[in-house]
User: Fold this.
Amino acid sequence: MNGDNPILFGGSRMLSKGTHHVAIIGAGTMGVGISVVFAAGNWHVHVVDSAERARESFPGRIRAASENSEHDFLDSMAIHKNLDSLPWEDVEICVECVSEKLSLKQTIFSELETLCRPGVPLASNSSSFPISRIGHGLQTQSRMLGLHFFMPAHLVPLVEVISSEFTGEDVLKRTTSIMEALGKRPVQVKKDIPGFLANRIQHALMREAISLVEKGVASVEDVDIAVRYGFGFRFVAAGPLLQKDLSGLDINYNAAKEIYPDLCNDVSPSAFLADKVARGHTGTKALKGFYVWSEGAVQKEKARYERMLRAALGILEDEENSKS
Assistant:
Protein backbone atom coordinates (compact mmCIF):
# COMPACT_ATOMS: atom_id res chain seq x y z
CA MET A 1 0.00 0.00 0.00
CA ASN A 2 2.89 2.36 -0.53
CA GLY A 3 1.96 3.58 -3.99
CA ASP A 4 0.30 6.88 -4.88
CA ASN A 5 -2.82 5.17 -6.22
CA PRO A 6 -5.71 4.63 -3.77
CA ILE A 7 -6.61 1.15 -2.60
CA LEU A 8 -10.30 0.62 -3.44
CA PHE A 9 -11.28 -2.18 -1.09
CA GLY A 10 -14.70 -2.46 -2.72
CA GLY A 11 -13.47 -2.30 -6.30
CA SER A 12 -14.36 0.22 -9.02
CA ARG A 13 -17.94 0.61 -7.78
CA MET A 14 -16.49 2.86 -5.07
CA LEU A 15 -16.62 5.71 -7.57
CA SER A 16 -20.15 5.12 -8.79
CA LYS A 17 -22.43 8.15 -9.12
CA GLY A 18 -25.57 8.76 -7.12
CA THR A 19 -24.19 7.65 -3.76
CA HIS A 20 -22.89 9.56 -0.76
CA HIS A 21 -19.13 10.08 -0.44
CA VAL A 22 -17.23 11.32 2.62
CA ALA A 23 -13.57 12.31 2.89
CA ILE A 24 -11.89 11.49 6.20
CA ILE A 25 -8.44 12.97 6.69
CA GLY A 26 -6.39 10.81 9.05
CA ALA A 27 -6.43 7.03 9.52
CA GLY A 28 -5.70 6.98 13.25
CA THR A 29 -7.98 5.69 16.00
CA MET A 30 -10.61 8.37 15.46
CA GLY A 31 -10.39 8.12 11.68
CA VAL A 32 -11.09 4.39 11.84
CA GLY A 33 -14.08 4.82 14.16
CA ILE A 34 -15.57 7.65 12.08
CA SER A 35 -15.05 5.60 8.92
CA VAL A 36 -17.12 2.79 10.43
CA VAL A 37 -19.87 5.26 11.37
CA PHE A 38 -20.21 6.45 7.76
CA ALA A 39 -19.80 3.01 6.22
CA ALA A 40 -22.52 1.64 8.48
CA GLY A 41 -24.76 4.35 7.03
CA ASN A 42 -24.01 3.11 3.48
CA TRP A 43 -21.65 5.95 2.58
CA HIS A 44 -18.59 5.50 0.41
CA VAL A 45 -15.63 6.37 2.63
CA HIS A 46 -12.37 7.86 1.34
CA VAL A 47 -9.65 7.96 3.99
CA VAL A 48 -6.41 9.89 3.46
CA ASP A 49 -3.19 9.32 5.38
CA SER A 50 0.36 10.01 4.20
CA ALA A 51 1.86 7.52 6.68
CA GLU A 52 2.47 4.12 5.07
CA ARG A 53 2.17 2.32 8.41
CA ALA A 54 -1.30 3.80 9.00
CA ARG A 55 -2.46 2.80 5.53
CA GLU A 56 -1.12 -0.75 5.83
CA SER A 57 -2.76 -1.34 9.21
CA PHE A 58 -6.04 0.32 8.21
CA PRO A 59 -7.91 -2.83 6.99
CA GLY A 60 -7.09 -4.79 10.15
CA ARG A 61 -8.16 -1.94 12.40
CA ILE A 62 -11.42 -1.49 10.51
CA ARG A 63 -12.20 -5.20 10.87
CA ALA A 64 -11.39 -5.07 14.60
CA ALA A 65 -13.71 -2.08 15.09
CA SER A 66 -16.54 -3.79 13.21
CA GLU A 67 -16.03 -7.39 14.33
CA ASN A 68 -19.52 -7.54 15.84
CA SER A 69 -21.13 -6.45 12.57
CA GLU A 70 -22.36 -8.80 9.86
CA HIS A 71 -21.14 -6.35 7.19
CA ASP A 72 -17.66 -5.98 5.74
CA PHE A 73 -17.36 -2.20 5.84
CA LEU A 74 -14.13 -2.29 3.86
CA ASP A 75 -16.27 -2.97 0.78
CA SER A 76 -17.29 0.69 0.80
CA MET A 77 -13.89 2.17 1.68
CA ALA A 78 -10.77 3.43 -0.07
CA ILE A 79 -7.46 4.44 1.49
CA HIS A 80 -5.47 7.23 -0.17
CA LYS A 81 -1.94 8.52 0.29
CA ASN A 82 -2.65 11.99 -1.10
CA LEU A 83 -5.59 14.37 -1.10
CA ASP A 84 -5.29 14.78 -4.86
CA SER A 85 -6.48 11.23 -5.57
CA LEU A 86 -9.97 11.67 -4.08
CA PRO A 87 -13.05 12.05 -6.31
CA TRP A 88 -13.71 15.57 -5.06
CA GLU A 89 -16.65 16.05 -7.43
CA ASP A 90 -18.53 13.40 -5.40
CA VAL A 91 -17.51 14.29 -1.83
CA GLU A 92 -20.39 15.73 0.25
CA ILE A 93 -18.60 16.31 3.57
CA CYS A 94 -14.99 16.29 4.83
CA VAL A 95 -13.97 15.31 8.34
CA GLU A 96 -10.41 16.07 9.47
CA CYS A 97 -9.13 13.93 12.33
CA VAL A 98 -5.34 14.22 12.27
CA SER A 99 -3.21 14.68 15.39
CA GLU A 100 -3.82 17.69 17.63
CA LYS A 101 -1.37 20.07 15.97
CA LEU A 102 -2.92 23.40 15.06
CA SER A 103 -0.49 24.20 12.23
CA LEU A 104 -1.13 20.79 10.62
CA LYS A 105 -4.90 21.25 10.78
CA GLN A 106 -4.62 24.75 9.34
CA THR A 107 -2.54 23.47 6.43
CA ILE A 108 -5.04 20.70 5.69
CA PHE A 109 -8.00 23.09 5.78
CA SER A 110 -6.28 25.48 3.38
CA GLU A 111 -5.89 22.55 0.95
CA LEU A 112 -9.45 21.32 1.47
CA GLU A 113 -10.77 24.78 0.72
CA THR A 114 -9.35 24.62 -2.80
CA LEU A 115 -10.07 20.93 -3.46
CA CYS A 116 -13.62 20.58 -2.19
CA ARG A 117 -16.65 21.86 -4.09
CA PRO A 118 -18.14 25.16 -2.83
CA GLY A 119 -20.62 24.72 0.00
CA VAL A 120 -19.45 21.26 1.05
CA PRO A 121 -19.01 21.23 4.87
CA LEU A 122 -15.40 21.11 6.08
CA ALA A 123 -15.38 19.71 9.62
CA SER A 124 -12.68 19.11 12.22
CA ASN A 125 -12.79 16.41 14.87
CA SER A 126 -10.39 18.41 17.05
CA SER A 127 -11.02 17.88 20.74
CA SER A 128 -9.56 21.22 21.79
CA PHE A 129 -8.94 23.75 19.00
CA PRO A 130 -11.83 26.10 18.12
CA ILE A 131 -12.78 25.82 14.46
CA SER A 132 -12.30 29.58 14.11
CA ARG A 133 -8.59 29.12 14.90
CA ILE A 134 -8.25 26.22 12.47
CA GLY A 135 -9.93 28.19 9.68
CA HIS A 136 -8.34 31.53 10.54
CA GLY A 137 -7.67 33.61 7.43
CA LEU A 138 -9.40 31.24 5.01
CA GLN A 139 -12.00 32.45 2.53
CA THR A 140 -14.86 30.00 3.16
CA GLN A 141 -15.16 29.87 6.94
CA SER A 142 -18.93 29.86 6.53
CA ARG A 143 -18.72 26.15 5.64
CA MET A 144 -16.28 25.22 8.42
CA LEU A 145 -17.40 23.72 11.70
CA GLY A 146 -16.34 21.39 14.47
CA LEU A 147 -17.59 17.80 14.40
CA HIS A 148 -16.32 16.22 17.57
CA PHE A 149 -16.78 12.47 17.99
CA PHE A 150 -15.87 10.57 21.15
CA MET A 151 -13.66 7.49 21.34
CA PRO A 152 -14.61 4.88 20.31
CA ALA A 153 -16.45 6.89 17.66
CA HIS A 154 -18.37 3.92 16.28
CA LEU A 155 -19.88 3.12 19.69
CA VAL A 156 -20.37 6.42 21.53
CA PRO A 157 -23.59 8.00 20.19
CA LEU A 158 -22.73 11.62 20.96
CA VAL A 159 -21.21 13.98 18.41
CA GLU A 160 -20.78 17.70 18.99
CA VAL A 161 -21.57 20.02 16.07
CA ILE A 162 -19.71 23.25 16.82
CA SER A 163 -20.35 26.60 15.15
CA SER A 164 -18.02 29.56 14.96
CA GLU A 165 -19.27 33.09 14.39
CA PHE A 166 -18.71 32.44 10.66
CA THR A 167 -20.48 29.06 10.29
CA GLY A 168 -23.54 29.24 8.07
CA GLU A 169 -26.87 28.06 9.43
CA ASP A 170 -27.42 25.88 6.37
CA VAL A 171 -24.10 24.09 6.88
CA LEU A 172 -24.92 23.56 10.57
CA LYS A 173 -28.34 22.10 9.76
CA ARG A 174 -27.06 19.90 6.94
CA THR A 175 -24.25 18.45 9.04
CA THR A 176 -26.57 17.84 11.99
CA SER A 177 -29.01 16.05 9.67
CA ILE A 178 -26.22 13.84 8.30
CA MET A 179 -25.25 12.84 11.84
CA GLU A 180 -28.84 12.03 12.74
CA ALA A 181 -29.24 9.93 9.60
CA LEU A 182 -26.10 7.99 10.63
CA GLY A 183 -27.70 7.14 13.97
CA LYS A 184 -25.60 9.54 16.05
CA ARG A 185 -26.97 11.85 18.73
CA PRO A 186 -25.74 15.32 17.73
CA VAL A 187 -25.74 18.33 20.04
CA GLN A 188 -25.18 21.84 18.71
CA VAL A 189 -22.52 23.88 20.49
CA LYS A 190 -23.38 27.50 19.77
CA LYS A 191 -20.16 29.16 20.91
CA ASP A 192 -16.70 28.23 19.61
CA ILE A 193 -14.98 27.85 22.98
CA PRO A 194 -12.03 25.58 23.93
CA GLY A 195 -13.19 22.10 24.87
CA PHE A 196 -16.70 22.73 23.51
CA LEU A 197 -19.38 21.09 25.68
CA ALA A 198 -18.71 17.53 26.85
CA ASN A 199 -14.95 17.91 27.29
CA ARG A 200 -15.41 20.98 29.47
CA ILE A 201 -17.73 19.02 31.75
CA GLN A 202 -15.40 16.03 31.69
CA HIS A 203 -12.31 18.09 32.53
CA ALA A 204 -14.10 19.78 35.42
CA LEU A 205 -14.72 16.30 36.84
CA MET A 206 -11.15 15.18 36.11
CA ARG A 207 -9.63 18.21 37.83
CA GLU A 208 -11.46 17.38 41.04
CA ALA A 209 -10.87 13.60 40.73
CA ILE A 210 -7.12 14.05 40.35
CA SER A 211 -7.05 16.61 43.14
CA LEU A 212 -8.75 14.17 45.54
CA VAL A 213 -6.12 11.52 44.77
CA GLU A 214 -3.26 14.01 45.00
CA LYS A 215 -4.46 15.23 48.41
CA GLY A 216 -4.78 11.68 49.73
CA VAL A 217 -8.55 11.90 50.18
CA ALA A 218 -9.12 8.65 48.27
CA SER A 219 -7.25 6.09 46.17
CA VAL A 220 -7.38 5.95 42.39
CA GLU A 221 -9.47 2.79 42.63
CA ASP A 222 -11.99 4.34 45.01
CA VAL A 223 -12.41 7.47 42.92
CA ASP A 224 -13.25 5.30 39.91
CA ILE A 225 -15.65 3.18 41.99
CA ALA A 226 -17.38 6.29 43.37
CA VAL A 227 -18.09 7.54 39.86
CA ARG A 228 -19.04 4.23 38.24
CA TYR A 229 -21.23 2.91 41.03
CA GLY A 230 -22.49 6.27 42.31
CA PHE A 231 -23.53 9.33 40.34
CA GLY A 232 -21.98 8.03 37.10
CA PHE A 233 -24.29 5.01 37.24
CA ARG A 234 -27.25 7.39 36.87
CA PHE A 235 -25.94 9.20 33.79
CA VAL A 236 -27.24 6.67 31.28
CA ALA A 237 -30.70 7.29 32.70
CA ALA A 238 -30.44 11.06 33.17
CA GLY A 239 -27.96 13.84 32.49
CA PRO A 240 -26.79 16.01 35.41
CA LEU A 241 -29.41 18.75 34.98
CA LEU A 242 -32.36 16.39 34.58
CA GLN A 243 -31.11 14.39 37.56
CA LYS A 244 -31.15 17.53 39.72
CA ASP A 245 -34.69 18.31 38.62
CA LEU A 246 -35.58 14.82 39.85
CA SER A 247 -33.76 15.18 43.16
CA GLY A 248 -34.51 18.86 43.78
CA LEU A 249 -32.71 22.09 42.85
CA ASP A 250 -32.97 23.33 46.43
CA ILE A 251 -30.98 20.34 47.65
CA ASN A 252 -28.34 20.96 44.98
CA TYR A 253 -28.22 24.68 45.81
CA ASN A 254 -27.68 24.12 49.52
CA ALA A 255 -25.01 21.48 48.87
CA ALA A 256 -23.28 23.76 46.38
CA LYS A 257 -22.97 26.55 48.95
CA GLU A 258 -21.05 24.19 51.21
CA ILE A 259 -18.97 22.34 48.59
CA TYR A 260 -18.08 24.93 45.94
CA PRO A 261 -15.67 26.98 48.10
CA ASP A 262 -13.61 23.83 48.77
CA LEU A 263 -13.45 22.49 45.21
CA CYS A 264 -10.19 22.50 43.26
CA ASN A 265 -10.04 25.56 41.02
CA ASP A 266 -6.52 25.22 39.58
CA VAL A 267 -6.03 27.02 36.27
CA SER A 268 -3.35 24.58 35.08
CA PRO A 269 -2.94 20.78 35.21
CA SER A 270 -1.88 19.52 38.63
CA ALA A 271 1.72 18.72 39.54
CA PHE A 272 0.55 15.15 40.16
CA LEU A 273 -0.57 14.77 36.54
CA ALA A 274 2.41 16.72 35.15
CA ASP A 275 4.81 14.39 36.95
CA LYS A 276 3.19 11.28 35.46
CA VAL A 277 3.39 12.70 31.95
CA ALA A 278 7.02 13.77 32.49
CA ARG A 279 7.87 10.22 33.58
CA GLY A 280 6.20 8.78 30.50
CA HIS A 281 3.43 7.21 32.58
CA THR A 282 0.78 8.00 29.99
CA GLY A 283 -1.62 5.09 30.47
CA THR A 284 -2.11 1.73 28.78
CA LYS A 285 0.12 2.60 25.82
CA ALA A 286 3.03 2.94 28.28
CA LEU A 287 1.78 0.13 30.58
CA LYS A 288 1.72 2.63 33.43
CA GLY A 289 -0.57 5.56 34.24
CA PHE A 290 -2.92 5.83 37.18
CA TYR A 291 -2.75 2.02 37.15
CA VAL A 292 0.06 -0.44 36.28
CA TRP A 293 -0.66 -2.64 33.26
CA SER A 294 0.58 -5.71 31.42
CA GLU A 295 -0.03 -6.31 27.70
CA GLY A 296 -2.53 -9.05 28.52
CA ALA A 297 -4.36 -6.89 31.04
CA VAL A 298 -4.66 -4.07 28.52
CA GLN A 299 -6.32 -6.31 25.94
CA LYS A 300 -8.64 -7.77 28.55
CA GLU A 301 -9.60 -4.32 29.82
CA LYS A 302 -10.27 -2.95 26.34
CA ALA A 303 -12.53 -5.92 25.61
CA ARG A 304 -14.40 -5.38 28.90
CA TYR A 305 -14.69 -1.65 28.20
CA GLU A 306 -16.18 -2.20 24.75
CA ARG A 307 -18.55 -4.86 26.06
CA MET A 308 -19.86 -2.47 28.72
CA LEU A 309 -20.25 0.35 26.17
CA ARG A 310 -22.25 -1.94 23.89
CA ALA A 311 -24.51 -2.88 26.81
CA ALA A 312 -25.07 0.79 27.64
CA LEU A 313 -25.69 1.55 23.96
CA GLY A 314 -28.32 -1.17 23.92
CA ILE A 315 -30.16 0.54 26.78
CA LEU A 316 -30.15 3.87 24.95
CA GLU A 317 -31.25 2.27 21.69
CA ASP A 318 -34.15 0.54 23.45
CA GLU A 319 -35.26 3.91 24.82
CA GLU A 320 -35.09 5.54 21.38
CA ASN A 321 -36.99 2.66 19.79
CA SER A 322 -39.75 2.94 22.41
CA LYS A 323 -40.32 6.56 21.34
CA SER A 324 -40.98 5.65 17.71
